[in-house]
Amino acid sequence: MTVSPALRDELLAAVPGLRAFALSLTGNVDISDDLVQETLVKAWTNFDTFQQGTNLRAWLFTILRNHFYSEMRKKKREVEDADGSLSAGLSVHPEQDGHMDMEDFKRALLELPDDQREALILVGGSGFAYEEAAEICGVAVGTIKSRVSRARGKLVQILDLNPAPELGPEATPEAIFAVAGRR
Q1: 5-78 has CATH 3.40.1410.10 classification
Q2: Which of 5, 34, 83, 133 maximizes the CB count within 10 A of its CB?
Q3: Domain-by-domain residue ranges, the chain?
């Protein structure tokens, strides 16, 4: 669409009012100038949607207002992080590693003898004390402790955890097995 000289002049005449309105919305001269510029670009590229004979000034102010509120909504979801310090603190370990570690652990757990697996699951997985696990299994407390110890050793061997690699965001095998051994 070609813009008539009269329409172009009317557009230019609206700029001071647009600047004042933008400044009242933003409170910042630089941001308001950017807002006016964006409004004029949008108006120029969409002049074919403007209906001749309607209020050009109102149309421009509507574009400016809508753009301002769209940017405000967008900024609510964004966080300023110019130096990258915030994003650096938000790093996450890849999930597939944890998933694969868990699959390896399940496979290794199935390789344990039934009595060792049972003792390890009761003490390490279900949180029972050695005494409770011994009662459940109908064996002596020393037998449960022995089974859990042998199960841990066998898992370390199957999973090749020497030296111990990191299994998750903060856990090491020794830490996991130590927690299980406290019960």
Answers
A1: no
A2: 133
A3: 5-78, 95-181
pLDDT at 178: 57
pTM: 0.45
Whose tokens are 């933008």? That residue is: 22
Find where tokens 């050793």 sit.
153
42-51's contacts with Cβ under 8 Å and 24+ in sequence apart are: 42/67, 43/11, 44/3, 44/11, 47/1, 47/3, 47/7, 48/1
User: Is the pLDDT confidence value at 121 over 60?
Assistant: yes
Q: Reduced to 3 states, what is the DSSP secondary structure of residue 112? A: coil
Task: Determine what percent of the chain falls in helix, strand and coil, rounding each to the nearest 5.
Answer: 70, 0, 30
Q: What is the distance between the alpha carbons of residues 112 and 119, in angstroms, rounded to a whole number?
A: 11
Distance from C-alpha of 167 to C-alpha of 159, rounded to nearest angstrom: 11
Q: Do you know the residue count of the chain?
A: 183
Q: Which CATH number fits domain 95-181: 1.10.10.10, 1.10.8.10, 3.40.50.720, 3.90.1150.10?
A: 1.10.10.10
Burial degree of 143 (CB within 10 A; 0-12, 13-18, 19+): middle
Q: Which two tokens stand for residue 19?
A: 């600047």
Q: Any idea what DSSP says for residue 122? A: I
